[in-house]
Amino acid sequence: MNKTTSVFNHKTFVRSSVRRFGAAAALASMLSACAGAAVSPTGAPTVQTATDRAIGQCVATVAGGAIIGALIGKDRKSGALIGAGIGAGACAVLLQVASREDKARIAAAEQEAIRANASRTVSFQTTSGKKATVSTRVASVKPPKRSAPVVAAAPSTPTAAARPAPVVTAAAAELSYTACRYATQTITVDGQSSDESKQLWCRVDTGDWQAVAG
């Protein structure tokens, strides 16, 4: 092989690799879009739950696998699909419910079970037309403590005309949640079940329940 042919083959390989990477990147972007942000049943952003995080991690894994597969595959299509298949693995179930609408239904099922303090199982049709069953087990736990800044009055000044504004001190007061419960979710699609996702929920002073780290 002469030098000219070698250079030509190298350029061809580079162009081919770039095209494969571009196709895989597009696939990765599409998969990542499925993850999105955590949403409430009304569509408003909220704190990510354990199930939300698990879905996001699966989507990221598959997206990364698609890029690697495309770079080492014999062609763009098969390489990307092989990589995506390698990345899916145990995430296959969660990828079936990764759309915004499906995640909102799962979140609603979790919140309803938490508020009712009762384990529940609900089923719905996914955006892809498959039947998904969501089982949520609820268990009460001792509430952890949380901290909030202490607001204290500013020191008085010689100027009587100006009322001192409150300032936030460095001290912190320990506030207690009124109640806490764990929600453990399992999702089943086409006879396959996901790993359990365990999320701590606590009721705040307003009476609302919120997902917290625990």
Automatic annotation (TrEMBL):
Membrane-spanning ranges: 53-72, 79-98
Signal sequence extent: 1-37
Keywords, in A-Z order: Membrane, Signal, Transmembrane, Transmembrane helix
Protein name: 17 kDa surface antigen
